[in-house]
Amino acid sequence: MSTTSTPVAHDTQWRTVRFEVLEKLESLPSLNSVVLEFLELSQREYFTAKDFEAVISKDQALVARLLKQANSGLYGRSRSIKSIPEAVVLIGLESLKKIVFAVSTEGLTRRTLKNYAYHEGQGFWMHSLGVAQTSRVLAEMSPACQLRSEEIYVAGLLHDIGQLIIDDFLPPGDGKHVSRRKEIEAVGLDHTELAEHILRQWNLPESITACVRYHHDYEQAGEWAPAAAVLCLAEGVCGHWGLGRKNPIDLSDDIPVEKFQNILDHIGLPAEKWDQVIWDIRQNLVGLDGTFREYAD
Ligand SMILES: [Fe+2]
Ligand SMILES: [Fe+2]
Q1: CA–CA separation, 135 vs 185, rounded Å?
Q2: What is the number of the ligand closest to the CA of 238?
Q3: Which of 230, 216, 244, 215 is nearest to 149 (CA)?
Q4: What does DSSP assign to residue 127?
Q5: How many A from CA of 170 to the centre of ligand 2?
Q6: Which of 22, 24, 228, 279 gives the lowest tally of CB atoms within 10 Å of its CB?
Q7: How far is the CA of 184 from the centre of ligand 1 (A)?
Q8: How far is the CA of 140 from the centre of ligand 2 (A)?
Q9: With 0-12 CB in 10 A as exposed, 13-18 as middle and 19+ as buried, what is 176?
């Protein structure tokens, strides 16, 4: 997949931005380099457990977290997993890939945002994980989405990262959704514009950056519009169920296909497949509360 720059993702109109926001941007921790290395590795046609281990083993703290997660009750293993190759065999590379991305970004996403309408049980983190999981399911079913499942998963994890910066500048939350207009009033930019800046700072591929930048305006994403539409739909589906706002998770409410018909057309997903899509998404989200408990130290 091409990672060259496109004009669309350079059109952020920097309004008058507060000096403290720029300072906060500077002081944001850098993204774990494993994420970039791992994204590159995933582009290869052949990708073995050994390649995986070579990247992961550079970060022993990450290895320890991965093994802790692999040994958690989530995977129902009767014997303990002591090494990465063992974990790959028992859990599977696909699941481990997701854990690598989630664990490597948790320093950024597993935070409490006080002024957005997330629940106190680290709703922001649950929302980020939920949108990542949902985007991945949608991308795999969308013939138009150009991002690989790893890329869209990372885009999902980081899609609202701009809110981390804005949170400190908002008036006290009243439990209501914070609009992008309110964000601009508070700091001069909305969370997608700030996210674009942050992701560029971290050298993430253009595909991911553009997708995150336009996850609320996918039609403006140029060549990346279908992928941005996937992320937008994931945001819409998770928003419908209040993922990250309601605790515990409740996925019981049906989502009528008409609600998202336009986006479905954009990503090439026929309406007849909607029930199947929602079933797959529910299957992927149903363990999220458990994931959260298992992660808790
Ligand atoms: Fe958003
Ligand atoms: Fe979101």
Answers
A1: 30
A2: 2
A3: 230
A4: H
A5: 17
A6: 279
A7: 14
A8: 20
A9: exposed
Position 12 scores a pLDDT of 53
Phi, psi of 151 (to 5 degrees): -65, -45
pTM of the model: 0.91
Ligand nearest, relative to CA of residue 192? 1
Q: How far is CA 250 from CA 102, 127, 153, 238, 239, in A?
A: 22, 13, 22, 10, 12
Cα(251) to ligand 1 centroid in Å equals 20
* Fold topology of 7-30+111-295: Hypothetical protein af1432 (1.10.3210)
DSSP 70-108: HTSGGG--SS---SHHHHHHHH-HHHHHHHHHHHHHHHH
pLDDT of 11-46, one tens digit each? 456 778 888 998 999 899 889 999 999 999 888 878
CA of 86 to the centre of ligand 2 (A): 35
How far, in Å, is the centroid of ligand 1 from the Cα of 238? Answer: 11
C-alpha span between 95 and 80 (Å, rounded): 17
**What are residue 252's phi and psi, to 5 degrees?**
-75, -25
Cα–Cα dist 231/138, whole Å: 9
Distance 52 CA to ligand 2 centre (A): 29
Q: Phi-psi category of 242—alpha, beta or left, where left has phi over 0 and alpha has psi -120 to 50?
A: left
Ligand nearest to the CA of 234: 2
pLDDT tens digits, 212-261: 999 999 999 999 999 999 999 999 999 999 999 998 899 999 999 999 99
Is 280 in contact with 141 (CB distance < 8 Å)?
yes
Give the integer Cα–Cα distance in Å for 121 and 283. Answer: 22
In the chain, domain spans: 7-30+111-295, 32-109
- What is the whole-number distance in angstroms between the Cα of residue 235 and the centre of ligand 1? 7
